[in-house]
Design goal:
The chain is mostly helical. The chain has a domain at 24-119: Tetratricopeptide repeat domain (Serine Threonine Protein Phosphatase 5, Tetratricopeptide repeat, Alpha Horseshoe). 68% of the residues lie in helices and 0% in strands. It has helices at residues 2-12, 27-38, 42-54, 62-73, 78-90, 98-110, 114-126, 134-146, 150-162, 170-182, 186-195. The two termini are 18 Å apart.
Length: 200
């Protein structure tokens, strides 16, 4: 049983993709963003942070990305708050600090941002930065999954399949795996396929 829980927690620790820009950056856009960032516009602060995070048109610099994300996050930008959580969770540009990561994830999650909700769910599922609490993890996964986030749908499927925080329910697990698969989550597709095999 302990081995199963360790495997499940490993499955819950899916590394999230790097933050994404909503448009393909160009030198012209970068200049617009820099001008808008100088005016304190959160979207521009966030996008400049992403350029430094990914090393697009600048040298990759996590510390510099944190500077920009923090400015946008302070204005309530939920995406940047989530990125600040990631910075502290993974130690990108700041000293790794799970409790600080949870503070930022919570701000993002309470702002309704699905990735922030998912990441706060991860913190509760893993017990990193907060006391492990599967019921609380489920709460945040449900909110993110309800907004169509495939990662959260997959994690709900996993928790129902293993009975973590809920009674084990293969049918509900299959339904969440199917939703995540429909949204492009490859591991959810694998789990769904396994659950549909004879003898499962």
């Amino acid at each position: 049983m302990k081995h199963t829980n360790i495997l499940l927690l490993s499955a819950l620790l899916i590394i999230l993709p790097a933050p994404a820009l909503s448009v393909t950056p160009t030198p012209e856009l970068k200049e617009i963003w820099l001008k808008d960032a100088a005016l304190g516009k959160p979207y521009a602060l966030h996008n400049i942070g992403l350029l430094y995070y990914k090393g697009i048109m600048v040298t990759r610099d996590y510390e510099e990305s944190v500077k920009w994300f923090r400015l946008a996050a302070a204005q309530g930008d939920a995406d940047s708050q989530d990125n600040m959580g990631d910075a502290f969770y993974y130690g990108h540009g700041v000293r790794q600090d799970y409790a600080e990561a949870v503070k930022w994830y919570r701000r993002s999650a309470e702002g309704g941002y699905p990735k922030g909700q998912n990441n706060l769910g991860n913190a509760y599922a893993e017990g990193k930065g907060v006391r492990q609490n599967y019921a609380e993890a489920l709460k945040w996964y449900r909110l993110a999954a309800g907004q169509g986030l495939d990662m959260a749908q997959y994690k709900l499927g996993t928790m129902y399949a293993e009975g973590l925080g809920v009674q084990r329910d293969p049918e509900t697990a299959r339904a969440w795996f199917n939703k995540a698969c429909d949204n492009g989550h490859s591991r959810a597709c694998e789990e769904s396929r396994k659950m549909n095999e004879p003898g499962h």
